[in-house]
Structure formats: structure tokens, C-alpha cells
Records
---
Amino acid sequence: MIYSPALSHRMTQFVTIMMCVSALWFSTSCDARNQNATTTHTFKPPMKSPAPRFVRHEVLIKFKDGISQERIASILKENGIDVIAEIQRGRLYHVRILDDRSVESAIAQLTSYQEVEYAEPNYRYETQK
């Protein structure tokens, strides 16, 4: 075998680097006193915040049969509600809450009237992609 000082120097560098890497790996991964010293970091794509399930300040109200338009208008006015659209010949209304009440509290208030068949949020629906 031929002895070469350059080859010997490179081999010494390689062994030194390998020993440093091994010592560093050993000291961080095998520390019995601190099990959490090496935490693996995995890439998690940013979570898209879910869209609200319903439109803020909007409700659908269905009135019972035989309720006069005057009484419906009175109930809506008493509750600070503006009509966006009238559906089903004056029985179903798409409305907007004019103050800062939550949709849930407005629904609770509306369903307390005997003239109201139901009130529900204006739910959002999305098609499957």
C-alpha cells in the first residue's frame, strides 16, 4: 500500500467530522434525563378556519297559516328585524337582524310568539368539490 500524506490528512478530517456528528446526535437523542430534548417537527399545512355555519344577522322565519300581514309586520318591527325577501306567499321570510343580537337570541325571541311556526339561522351550504 502506498502512503500519501494528503490521503492521510483527508482520512483524519473525515473521522473527526464523523465523531463530532455522532457525539452531537448521541447527546441530543439519548439523554435519559430529558425525553423531550429531540422533538420531531413535522410540516402541518395551515388549517383554514372553518366558515361560519350560518350567515351573521340573518334568519328564516316561517309564520303559521292565517296570520295577517299586519301582525307579521308588527312582530318584525317589535324585534328590530328588516325583511330581505318574502318567500312562500307571505309565510316564509328571509330577514336581517338590525341590532347586535346573536342569531340564537333572536331565534329564541321569535319562537316565543305563537304566530311563528319556526325560526332558524340562514345556513350556509357548499357543494362538494
---
Amino acid sequence: MNKLLKDLPAISASRYLDSRRRFLGQSAAGLGGLALSGLGGHSAFGASRKNEEIAGSFQSIAPKAKRVIYLFQSGGPPQMDLYDYKPTLNQMHGQDVPDSVFNGQRLTGMSSGQAKFPVAKSIFRFEQHGKSGAWLSELMPYLAEVVDDIAFVKSMHTEAINHDPAITFLQTGFQIAGRPSMGAWVSYGLGSENENLPSFVAMLSGNGQPLYDRLWGPGFLPSRHQGVRFRSGKDPVLYLNNPDGFSKELRRETLDDLNLLNRERLEAVGDPEIETRIAQYEMAYRMQSSVPELTDVSSEPESTFELYGDDARKPGTYAYNTLMARRLVERGTRFVQLFHRGWDTHGNLPKTLGARCRETDKATTGLLKDLKLRGLLDDTLVIWGGEFGRTVYCQGDLAPQSYGRDHHPRCFTTWMAGGGIKGGVTHGKTDDYSYNVVEDPVSVHDFHATVLHLLGVDHEKLTFKFQGRHYRLTDVHGKLVKQILA
């Protein structure tokens, strides 16, 4: 074919390529169509049309939760300074971590060259709270009020030791970019309860490790399942508002004409991504009315801001985003993902950690209380956690009131509350150094399987065929954490 193109004039070559594309596009039932469909891509001329199940058909279990709010704390919160109380560290403070604890496990390049690995106790006071007697750091005074609604999982572990692959793993079930995000899987499997709002929304706050759109992306799923990012400022969703001089009526006429052209193209080539494009144009049009009402918190009573804190009035803050999360699920959004950055504590941990907890503790607790007051907590699953934990040993210099901790994948704490969760329980146990899991380990795949189960979905059945293989969020792993289910 390359030789033929060289021998053709430029215009003829262009016409040849156009005719060839047209032939292949219109021959989906023939040999060319079979070859293209074998590629398995979601935009390959109808190859994945059979994957588009009716929303809700993946629910084979009675759902306990209808929706999810995932409060992702990006950077790796230190479990032994917040939830995993270890009094042994007080006696071992300043002494090297025993070799028997390390057991030959790998360290990051940031601390592997240290000559010493001194134990750093937590300088924060711990107390037990609620009927369950859950241990909490003094940094979480508001959360202490609702511990009996929470299931703490102290035995989470991950395969990734650096931020990007670890966050990618938590969001997609795979360390390498390209797989669908958790919210996209839920959108694909269950759809939305409100045609005027996206089924999956992502929001960011804080500063720290960079986060990328692929963390709430659709991967190889149809692109309409991508998370829509809500931003702070005048335009929460980019390009949603009409340009100056462009009326709503003109936008409607333009969309109608564009839809006619897209449907003609769809009939010609059968590409499901054209259907997605049509649906997303229409969603954007409807969101022009629904989003301004959603993001206007002036109608909220003063009692709301007493729950979440005054920062809930300021777009872009964690408190504002948690309030938006409640308003979204209240209106039928299926999956809301909040990313709060800044939990990376390689040095000066007490100051950094104190700041993050002041930014989040009241608002997180306010969200749980608000959902409960409105009767939404029973069928809304709330999740709190980061991508990994932190080391018991100090990274860098150990000072009386200051220390740092490195990344630690071997154990960390995540908690859940709401739809289908048994409140007031603690699952899993770590050793005296909060370094290794010693009881009831929970992997990332187990975590994903449990979340899907609470939504009424069997994680082994929620699949999508791509490049000749049926993929799922849990890949070929995952078992339910039954001990935390109500």
C-alpha cells in the first residue's frame, strides 16, 4: 500500500485513504469489520456494543448501598499517629527497629541509605472512644464523636511503594495507568439516578503530590463513564457556560443540528463512541441548569456550616467539597470521589499532620452526621483512606518534637461507614511496630470486592471485554471482608 500511495498524486492519495476508511467503516459485517472488531478497542466500530449492558443488570446481590463517597487522603496518612495505637513505641523510641521486624523487606530509595532506623513514637495522645472503645489520636477530636458508626480496617496492605503507582492501584486495581477507575466501573455497572447530573464526579483540594485525570478516567470503558471533575471558582465544570453572545436557544439549535450529523455518522459506521458524544452533549446542556443550583450553597441553613465548618462556604476547600458530596448524592450521583492532597510526611510530621487533620476532621465528621440526619447514611457508603501508610522508623533526624516517616505499603488503616457497614468494629491487627499485618490481611482487591458487594455487584461478574479478554476491577483476585458487613 505504501508503494501505491507514493505513485498517486497527493489529492488522489487522500481520496484513496478516505475511500479505504469508508469501505472499512461500512463493512463491519464483512472481513474488514471482523478484523477491526478483533482489536477490541471501545471505539472500534461497534466492537464493544455487546458490552453495553442495561444499567443495573450487574446487580445480582441485594444492595446495601446505592452510592459511594470516597474521601481519598492523598500522600499516605501515618496510621500509628492517627488510628493504630502502639504503646510499645514509647519504650522503643530512639532505638533501631529490630531486624526481625524488617524481615528483609524492601525500603524506598529515600531512606534505604540510612545508617540507622530509629523507632519514632507518636507524640500525640491516644484515647478510647464510644461504646466500641476505638482508639483515636487527639488529632481527630470530631471523628471521636462518631466512631460507633465506623468500621476501621487496620490491616490494609498494597503492592506499591511509591505514590503514583500506589494511588493508581487504589483507584483502578492495577499499578500501571490505563485501566478504568473505580468510579467508572460503578457508573458502567449501575448507571446514574439523575439524568441531569453525572453518575461519577471527582473533586480536588489541598496541595501535594500531583494527581492526574486518569485517576477518575474510564480507561477502556466507554468514555461517558469518566468522572466529571468539579473545580472551584466561577465555572465548576469547564466549558459548561455559553460564551458571551451565545444564547441558550442558539445552543439548543446548534446541538440539535450537531446531533443530526452525529446520528448520520453513527448509522454509517456504528461507532459507539458517537453515541457517547451525543449523550455527553445533551448531559452538558442539562447541566447548565442543574450545576449552578447544585453549587450554590447559600440556601443551606446555618446548621449545615456548624456541622462542616466555615470553610464549607469556600469553593476549593475540603469542607466545601464534602458538602458538595452530600448535595451530589442527595440528587442521585452514584460515585463521588474527593482527593485531598498534602498527607506526605517525610519530615516535620507533627506540623504537617496537624494541619491536614484541622482541614479535614470536622468536615469529615460533619458529612457523616449530615448524611445520618437526612436518612442517607443507611444507603450511602463513605470511605476514608490513602494509598499506603508510613514507617515506624524515622526518616531523617529524630528530634523530641519532630520526625518524619517514609512510605510503607505493608500495613495502613482505612475506614468505612454507612451503607451495609457494621459500625463500631475494628478489623485486622498489626504487630507492635505497626509494620506488618499479623491478623486478617486485607488487600486492595479485597477492598474493591467488598465495595462492589455493598452496591449489590459480584466483583467477578462486573466485566468488560477489551482486546480479547474480559477485564474486571479486581482482575483475578479479591475476596469479601465479611467481618465488617452489617
---
Amino acid sequence: MADATLARLSRPSVQTDSFWVIPPLLVLAVLFFYPLSLIATQAFTNGTGPVSLTQFGAVLGSAVFRSALLHTIEISISASAGCLLLGFVIALVLSFAPFPGARVVARLIDTFIALPTFLIALAFTFIYGSAGVLNGALIGALHFETPPIDFLYSPWGVILAEVTVYTPFVLRPLLATFSLIDIAQIEVASSLGAKPWRVVREVILPAAVPALLAGGSLCLLLTVNEFGIVLFIGAKGVITLPLLVYDKAIQEFDYTAACVIALINVVLSLALYFVYRLLVGRLGGRRAGLV
């Protein structure tokens, strides 16, 4: 009798729990799955025809797509590596070489996450552009005929802007990881004669690897899909996959090719996202073990 009563009481709870799954699924269906299905339909059928891979073959075989894919990979890997290096150095300084105002500096760096990416590109244009502050000062002081600093409108300008924007995504997990390191380990290693670089290599770096992997994979995901910085800087000859989708759809009105490229970009992004979630899960397990 008691078991039957408990079973009846538990049924509404199960039904209620099931009901609350429906609204998020509807939102996903309207905002994600439906647009994605339209893109996939256009890519595989050319809008009206039967299912075919002809468009994929044409896009994959084009020199423009291969160049865009190569630029996307080069820029994303280089920018992610720069974020890892810069984030690791800043995290080391903030965690193990504290100075007055270190927390304020960390908070200021965090604010970059909230800034739109085009704002950083605009700032770089004002500073490093052909008519920017730096070139203007050098031309006025040294009487150059042409702007001496011209890296901004190249892949290096895009990479530097992306490193500036996305380094906080590496810095934050590193600071959280470094806060769990027992300072006594570092003090013991130093007392035994270990040089600072050896302490970093053998004590700090092994603990930082999960955070570096998680932050680096997130930066890779974000830089692969970066559009605003590449478009705003307008680097000569630098076409990435998101920019190629824009060119095909808006400038050339080739919606089928744009959908094919967009679908490839979505698959690449989802693969990187699953890698990121896997690494974040491992990082969470490592933190739980440390705690």
C-alpha cells in the first residue's frame, strides 16, 4: 500500500520534469536545428534538385576554398599558440610574482571578454594603421616617405588582434589551476637549489597542462569562427572560412556554395567543441581530485 502511494506521488514529478525539457528543445529547434536544416538542404540539393554531392566536390576542389581553409587553420593555430604563451606568462606573474594591483590587472584583462571583437580591431587600426598614431609619430619624427609599420593589414595583424581578444580565455582557467598549487612544493624545490625555470617546468607546468589544453581548445574554436576581426582589419589576401561564406552569400549571391562552406565550418566547429568539452571534463575531474 505504501509503495503504491509513493509510486503515485512520484508520477507527477516525472511528468513535470519531462515537461520542462520541451521549452528548451523548442528553442533549439527554432533557433538552431531549423536554420541548420535549411542550410543542409540547400547544400545537398541546390534548393530544388535531388540530393547530390556535386556542390561539395565543386567547393572542395576550388582553389578559393583551399586557400580559405589554409588561412583559417594557420591563423587559428597561430593565434591559439600566442594566447597560450601570453596567458601562461601573465598567469605565472599574477599567481607567483604578486605585485600591488595584481587583482586589478587580472580584472581588467577579464574585461576583454566582454568587449566586441571589432572594437579591438578598431583600436589596432587607430594605433598601428597606415594613418595611425604610431605611424604618424614615426613619419613626423624620422621623415619616412611611407608608413614604416605595415603589419596590420596582413595575417600577423589578424593574429595579434585575436591574441589580444582571446588570451583571457586561457588566463582564467590557468589562474584557477594555479590557485590550487601548494606553495610549499615551490618553496621546497627552491630550497633544494632548483632554478626558477626548473620549478616552472617540473612543478607548475604539469599542473597547468589540463588548463592549457582546455583554454587552448576554446581559443582554437573561437578563432576558427572569428569574422569581425578579419573583416574589419581587411588584411590583403586573407580570406577565412567565415569570410568566404559572407563573400559567397552577400557579394556573389552563390547561396549553395555559401551553405556548403557554412556546413563544413559547422562540422569543424562542433568537432572542436566536443574536444573542448572533453578537456574541460578532464580538467574538472583533476580539480576534484586535487580538492
